[in-house]
Amino acid sequence: MPWVLPADPMPPKTVVSLTDVLMRAKARVAENDVTGALRAFAVIEDSSERADVRDEFIATLANEDPSQAARVALAMPAGFGQSSALDVAARSLVQRNADEALGWALALPEPATRYTALQSVTDQMLHHDPTAALERVAALPPSPRRDDALNLAAARWARTGPEAALRWVRGKLTGELSTRVTTSIGFELAQTTPQAAIEVAATLPRARGRWLLLAAIGQTWVAQNSQAAFEWIKTLPPGEEHDAALAGAETGLGTASTRYAALLRGAFPGEPSREMIGQVGGLGPPPVSSAVPLPPDLEAERSRRRDFEELLLMSPAMAADWLNRAPASERTEEMIERVARAWLPHNPIAAEAWLSQIFLPFDRRTQLLRELRR
Q1: What CA–CA distances, in Å, run from 154 to 92, 163, 217?
Q2: According to DSSP H, which parts of 129-191 are helical?
């Protein structure tokens, strides 16, 4: 038998004490060094274990000091991990002081984190008392962000109590704000109960918000029951309503639809209003004053982010289609993950099919699906 050079001995594997890691992270937080607290977890080589230990740390910290947990969460990189940490911190903040939690979420400057935090805050408030939650938001000083919070809270309420949410809106709000919030409820219902969303659409003014809602109904219903969706479309009279619903259905089937693209641009035939989607809600940044023009690249980026936030609030399916159409350089993993988290609970088959087609690293897609199914 030929002589074989013996292999070098394997170096001993470094044993990491998780207790030491947690103590080190906690010490850094006590020194107001949240970045250092997050660096403490870098010694854990396995990424899944590292995420689990970090989540445990955030949960413990949130029970002791929700404000510090929120600071650590905000220091994390954008993605599912940060969203989960923000959710834990936000819920603990609500339990300690709902008014302060709401103010904290609304004051966050970055649209994506503001949306995530506000969603967690309103969900926790709605869990305790939906009516009181909406009253609390409505009592805030009028502002675009207050209105955005009303849109989101009413839509989230509609998941469990659509009739009650609609009654509250119709009894408490008037004018354009009432229309916007009602439309947001309609987009939420379109994900699971198309017939109820159709009834909401019938109460809206014959304008852009109504056509967008009908498109969302067509898009999600055709994925659930294509025969029922097209039977409904056949009952619509010729014109904007029929074309909007058909445009949504075409997109839901994966067919390129010039009608749908025109609808999103506000160029629908016969459409009287060409104002931005912001009429019907969204959590994007406020319009930038023309007195202080931004560099073209920054202005375009803000515009794209505003469009995405508004579509995601109205319909995850529409936000998914928007990402499909966007150049690869303009969509991020964070956007894809947020669409998946919003869409999977309502229509897991369509959401998973979309995730399998849009570019996302295989290991990230697998991890995302595993986390969302917990």
Answers
A1: 21, 11, 18
A2: 130-138, 144-157, 162-172, 175-190
Q: Which residues of the chain have pLDDT under 70?
A: 1-16, 254-303, 313-314, 346-347, 349, 371-374
Please give the Cα distance from 38 to 72 (Å, whole number): 8
Report the distance separating Cα 331 and Cα 127, nearest Å. Answer: 33
What is the full DSSP assignment across 6-40?
PPPPPPPPPPP-HHHHHHHHHHHHHTT-HHHHHHG
Overall number of domains in the chain:
2
Name the residue range of residue 345's domain: 175-283+298-374
First to last CA, the chain: 54
In contact, 305 and 111? CB cutoff 8 Å: yes
Assign 3-state DSSP to the chain and report helix, strand, coil percentages, each to 5.
Answer: 70, 0, 30
Structure tokens at 193: 């109960």
Can you tell me the distance from the alpha carbon of 308 to that of 314, in angstroms, rounded to the nearest whole number?
10
Helix or strand or coil: residue 293?
A: coil
Amino acid 334: pLDDT: 80
The contacts of residue 251 (CB under 8 Å, 6+ apart) are 215, 219, 257, 260, 321
pLDDT of residue 357: 75
Do 180 and 115 fall into the same domain? Answer: no
Report pLDDT for 58.
94
Exposed, middle or buried: residue 235 (CB in 10 Å: 0-12, 13-18, 19+)? exposed
Among 231, 172, 166, 228, residue whose Cα is nearest residue 202: 166
Q: Is the same domain home to 329 and 196?
A: yes
Count of CB atoms situated within 10 Å of the CB of 322: 20
Reading the block at residue 244, the tokens are: 């909007």
Tokens coding 298? 């920054």
Residue 197 sits in the same domain as residue 303: yes
- The long-range contacts involving 142-149, CB below 8 angstroms and separated by at least 24 positions, are 144/286, 145/106, 145/283, 146/106, 147/177, 147/180, 147/281, 148/118, 148/281, 148/282, 148/283, 149/102, 149/105, 149/106, 149/118, 149/122
Tell whether 99 and 180 lie within a shared domain: no
The one-letter amino acid code at 108 reads: L
CB contact at 8 A, 120 and 157: no
